[in-house]
């Protein structure tokens, strides 16, 4: 199979599948080495961007997906008349951040960090497809473990959770101090 045939096959597979496809699955289907497939797809990603196409290929945890460029979203809205944008509240973003950085994490661990009940926020994040159940903790009651999804990676434009920004320890201490001061002020009222 020559390079042009491989690119055409990859394009067809990614388009037809809709969801992300693991590099190893593409390699198996094309009977090519995984390393070669990654190189071909990344070259295609660069070319799509360079040619300013309406679609792009994104990488998510060593998998690839063909999708519409975010800049084209308004045209899709006009055609479908059904915007599918979910609003994330501050509470949901806070809960999502905890899941992203601490995953796999239980509901009780999330609530311990936040200091309040997180049922509604967690349920909404699951409903929006940003968080999912990843298993159960081997502990009494077998609590559910939560983690982020590929939709989370797509939404926030990262390939994997390893690409999330690293929090500066000084900033973390500053946030803790502010939270403690706010908690104290609410007790004083």
Overall structural class, as computed from helix and strand content, comes to: alpha+beta
Radius of gyration: 21 Å
Number of strands: 6
**CATH architecture title of the largest domain:** Orthogonal Bundle
Shape: elongated
CATH class categorisation of the largest domain: Mainly Alpha
**CATH fold-level topology of the largest domain:** Arc Repressor Mutant, subunit A
How can the largest sheet be summarized?
3 strands, antiparallel
Spans of 5+ residues with little confidence (pLDDT < 50)? none
Q: Can you write the helix and strand succession as a string?
A: HEHHEEHHEHHEEHH
What is the count of helical runs?
A: 9
Q: Give the terminus-to-terminus CA distance.
A: 73 Å
pLDDT averaged residue by residue: 87
In the sheet with the most strands, the strands line up as: 1-3-2
Strand content: 5-15%
The H-level CATH homologous superfamily of the largest domain, spelled out, is Winged helix-like DNA-binding domain superfamily/Winged helix DNA-binding domain
Helix amount: 55-70%
Fold and architecture overview:
A three-stranded antiparallel sheet has the order 1-3-2. The protein has helices at about 5-15, 25-30, 35-50, 75-80, 90-100, 105-115, 120-125, 150-155, 170-189; strands at about 20, 55-60, 65-70, 105, 130-135, 145-150. The longest helix is centred in the C-terminal third of the chain and has 20 residues, at about 170-189. With about 190 residues, it is an alpha+beta fold. The relative contact order is 0.09. The protein contains nine helices and six strands. Helix 1 packs across helix 3. It has two domains: about 5-75, Arc Repressor Mutant, subunit A (Orthogonal Bundle), CATH 1.10.10.10; about 90-189, Arc Repressor Mutant, subunit A. A hairpin with a 3-residue loop joins strand 2 (about 55-60) and strand 3. The termini are far apart.
């Amino acid at each position: 199979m020559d390079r042009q045939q491989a690119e055409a096959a990859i394009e067809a597979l990614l388009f037809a599948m809709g969801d992300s496809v693991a590099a190893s699955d593409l390699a198996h289907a094309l009977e090519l080495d995984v390393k070669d497939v990654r190189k071909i797809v990344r070259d295609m990603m660069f070319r799509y961007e360079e040619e300013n196409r309406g679609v792009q290929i994104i990488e998510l945890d060593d998998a690839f997906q063909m999708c519409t460029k975010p800049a084209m979203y308004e045209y899709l809205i006009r055609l479908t008349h059904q915007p599918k944008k979910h609003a994330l509240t501050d509470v949901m973003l806070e809960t999502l951040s905890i899941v992203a950085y601490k995953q796999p994490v239980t509901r009780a661990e999330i609530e311990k960090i936040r200091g309040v009940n997180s049922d509604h926020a967690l349920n909404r994040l699951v409903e929006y497809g940003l968080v999912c159940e990843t298993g159960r903790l081997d502990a009494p009651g077998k609590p559910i473990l939560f983690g982020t999804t590929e939709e989370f990676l797509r939404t926030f434009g990262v390939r994997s959770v390893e690409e999330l920004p690293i929090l500066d320890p000084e900033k973390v201490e500053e946030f803790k101090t502010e939270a403690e001061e706010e908690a104290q002020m609410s007790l004083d009222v």
